[in-house]
TrEMBL record:
Motif position, 'KMSKS' region: 197-201
Protein known as: Tryptophan--tRNA ligase
Family as reported in the entry's similarity comment: Belongs to the class-I aminoacyl-tRNA synthetase family.
Catalytic activity: tRNA(Trp) + L-tryptophan + ATP = L-tryptophyl-tRNA(Trp) + AMP + diphosphate + H(+)
Motif ('HIGH' region): 14-22
Subunit structure: Homodimer.
Source organism of the structure: Diplocloster modestus
Physiological role: Catalyzes the attachment of tryptophan to tRNA(Trp).
Amino acid sequence: MMNDKKVLFSGMQATGTLTLGNYLGALKNWVTLSDEYECFYCVVDLHSITIRQDPAELRKRARNLLTLYIAAGLDPTKNCLYYQSHVSGHAELSWILNCFTYMGELNRMTQFKDKSQKHADNINAGLFTYPVLMAADILLFQSDVVPVGIDQMQHLEITRDIAQRFNNIYGDVFTIPEPYIGKTGAKIMSLQDPTKKMSKSDENPNSSIYLMDDPDAIVRKFKRAVTDSGKEILYTDDKPGIKNLLDIYCTITQKTVEEAVKEFDGKGYGEFKLAVGEVVADHLRPVQERFGQLSKDKAFIDGIIKDNAEKANYFATKTLRKVQRKVGFPDRIR
């Protein structure tokens, strides 16, 4: 345990461009957690290469993502923000844990089935063992809690199973992580198909709000957002489009659903969609401005990358050396 705080781990992939869903469902909530937890937030670039990437583009997106972490409010002196690929313990622990994970467990993972269908021409071993690397990510820092959405719960469960299996053999080596589920904004849906989660890989650009979209583009996308039959603005499952827009509006304004429904009582869908778009554009403007400033300060970002990689490696090595000794690897001669 560090500073008597519980440890929290999470990360985002360095692929695509972050959406409003990524921000409201995860990044915005992360900012509030550093006072309570010792937080490790990585830029997940090892996982990213299960799908073929353009090398220069991957490096650019990884740096942009780390910069965006800071622009969104994550203090790099209070949170450890680092590249996954800069901490070799992720890959080393993943190999060891592969030897304590069963094929049947991996065969049951729904994400492998989904991604195999989307990338049928590249069903590689990394895609299959992806959950083991994710387990290594979490267990490497003795994480107590992991922020997860409902669609990631299966990965946390296999992480817990692997850790408990290892502990049953070798003693209390790993902390068994618990899920941390945010209370609001946990799942933001597509603006064009509110039955699907907003995704940075959606082929329809009008489906997602990207964090770097300019204000005019944001408002325009909300104006085009799919709504529902009828005219009333109500928070109900048979109005998924309006429900999604209310979720977005309430998460940003911190108003209750009841307050928002009352505010727009008697107003049309057009007026409502415009209001949501303007609230989102106003909220993202300071994040975008801060991102622009940070992107120009190469020395500052380089310093964060170096210092936080050293911090992450320090804590990762403590766990890795313990695991290596438990499984019987020779001690290193200092």
